[in-house]
Amino acid sequence: MKNHSDIEAKRQKKATKTMCDAFLAMQRREEILNLLNDLCTPAELEAITDRWWVLQLLQEKMPYRQISERTGVSVTTIGRVARYWREGAGGYQLALERINK
After folding, report:
1. What CATH number does the domain containing 75 carry?
2. Residue 37, Cβ neighbours under 10 Å: how many?
């Protein structure tokens, strides 16, 4: 993460909030995808998508090595996704609960 002064940190926090508002303003999956394509490089979008795929496979209790072989994602990244699923801010869990209803 970048080193920010207090003023820059406040501006960054505000920018993060307005970015969240932009996602909330999207009404269809296609609109969200278009926003993601504008915000992210292809590699960044692939990394985000890979993490989500890993999360789904972890939810199915697939072993890390098997997930790595299937997705091409490193075991280290798989471990990181698993750790944030268990100990993170709760976003993964909330999203899974809402889409699995």
Report:
1. 1.10.1270.10
2. 11
Ranges in the chain, pLDDT < 50: none
Question: How many structural domains is the chain composed of?
Answer: 2
Other beta carbons less than 10 A from residue 97's beta carbon: 10
Residue 2 pLDDT: 61
Residue 1, Cβ density class (10 Å: 0-12 exposed, 13-18 middle, ≥19 buried) = exposed
Answer for the pair 25, 12: CB distance below 8 angstroms, yes or no. Answer: no
- The pLDDT value recorded for residue 87 is 97
Q: Which residues of 71-87 are buried (b: 16+ CB within 10 A; e: fewer)?
A: bebeeebbeebbebbee
pLDDT at position 6 is 84
Q: Do 64 and 80 share a structural domain? A: yes
